[in-house]
Design goal:
Layout: H1 2-9, E1 11-17, E2 25-30, E3 35-40, E4 45-49, E5 55-59, E6 66-71, E7 78-83, E8 88-92, E9 102-104, E10 112-117, E11 123-128, E12 137-141, E13 154-158, E14 166-171, E15 178-183, E16 187-192, H2 198-201, E17 202-207, E18 212-218, E19 224-229, E20 234-238, E21 249-253, E22 270-277, E23 282-288, E24 294-300, E25 303-310, E26 318-324, E27 329-334, E28 339-344, E29 349-350
């Protein structure tokens, strides 16, 4: 813990990239080698050098918001992106600027709002927005895809477990058949895909009593699941306790901002998400202030302890982050259009335009008002 806290305490800006166009960063993904992928509000996906943040190329093809990017866990040459235009696309990072090598589709009326790739790189899953009274988890085999009425690689859908937009999909980092999904219906579901049909595959349903915003697997054996809600609640469940009489809820707060004390009158306005730092054995939750400050919080037991506030970086809401374990760096992106790299003891080097500006729309993190529902469904196998 001391080593992690010392590292965080020494974090400062190493690289700052400010593009010329008034776009903001929606998501980012760090490859295990030397690349960073970033999705921008302009519908573009850009490839950056991890060390310098310089742009290496741009992928075009999506016609709607690109809400997420993921490098393939099994091949450092493949990058996936998910969009509200009803497609997921796979890009070859060896050919920046080229067309997608694979395009994943399902029903023409499906609009996706979340996706992830299994840890063995063979299955991709997307969560849809609500259609009539239903929402869907759609599965494809990453190794096969094609055109026509029947999409090659389309494995099937789950349609009974959520009743509203599926806003978070997260595969287990070690078990390729374990999947968690969260929705604005107030439910977080955990599946074992090896069990087949949806009813059999549903391991448990957890109530977050609000609209799920982000999910994160954590714990020594990655058997804990953190849920961040759109109204700044936090829930942490220990799924290893499902077959015991003990409560599997480790942490629960409908507004976890009230649990954090910040110095000098600083405000904690929202949570970006969480990340499990395996080497340190700590669950870190990242929060922010609308003026651009970031707050790194240690989530231990029923407490949130401030480890470090990062200032003089962003100037508005931060949308995404990722900790680069290889280089010991924090990557952050936000509505000010900036991509920042933070390292211990670093001195700032500007990569692009440094003058700060806000995006035209300055879209808030919470893009859709949640609908609380009285949900108490719980299932154990």
């Amino acid at each position: 813990m001391d080593s992690l806290k010392d590292t965080f305490e020494a974090l400062s800006i190493s690289r700052r990239l400010q593009p010329d166009d008034p776009s903001y960063v929606l998501d980012l993904s760090v490859s295990p080698v030397d690349l960073v992928a970033v999705s921008w509000s302009s519908h573009a996906v850009r490839l950056h050098a991890k060390e310098t943040l310089r742009v290496l190329g741009e992928y075009q093809g999506h016609t709607g918001a690109v809400f997420g990017v993921r490098f393939s866990p099994s091949s450092s040459d493949l990058l996936y992106s998910g969009s509200s235009d009803g497609t997921l696309r796979c890009w070859d990072v060896r050919r920046p600027g080229s067309s997608a090598v694979r395009v994943f589709r399902s029903d023409p009326d499906h609009s996706y709002c979340s996706f992830d790739v299994s840890c063995n790189g063979t299955v991709v899953c997307a969560g849809t927005e609500q259609m009539a009274d239903d929402s869907f988890l759609v599965f494809w085999d990453c190794r096969m895809t094609g055109g026509g009425a029947k999409q090659k690689g389309l494995l099937g859908v789950y349609s009974e477990s959520h009743s509203d937009d599926i806003t978070a999909v997260r595969f287990h980092p070690k078990q390729s058949d374990r999947l968690a999904s969260g929705s604005t219906d107030g439910l977080v579901n955990v599946f074992d895909l090896s069990l087949g049909e949806e009813d059999d595959a549903l391991v448990t349903t957890c109530n977050c009593d609000s609209s799920a915003s982000a999910l994160c697997w954590s714990g020594k054996n990655h058997d804990q699941l953190l849920c961040v809600t759109h109204d700044e609640g936090l829930r942490l469940w220990d799924l290893s306790r499902l077959d015991s009489d003990d409560s599997f809820t480790l942490f629960s707060s409908s507004d976890a901002r009230t649990l954090v004390s910040l110095p000098k009158g600083a405000s904690l306005d929202y949570f970006v998400g969480g990340t499990w730092l395996e080497e340190a054995g700590r669950l870190v939750v990242v929060g922010g202030s609308h003026n651009g400050e970031l707050h790194l919080l240690d989530c231990t037991g029923s407490e949130l302890k401030l480890m470090k506030s990062l200032i003089d970086g962003h100037s508005s809401t931060v949308r995404c982050f990722q900790w680069d374990t290889v280089d010991g760096a924090l990557l952050t992106g936000g509505e000010d259009g900036q991509l920042l790299q933070w390292k211990a003891g670093a001195e700032e080097i500007s990569v692009g335009k440094k003058d700060s500006f806000k995006s035209v729309s300055s879209m808030q993190l919470k893009s859709k008002s949640h609908r609380k529902q009285e949900v108490t469904r719980e299932k154990k196998h």
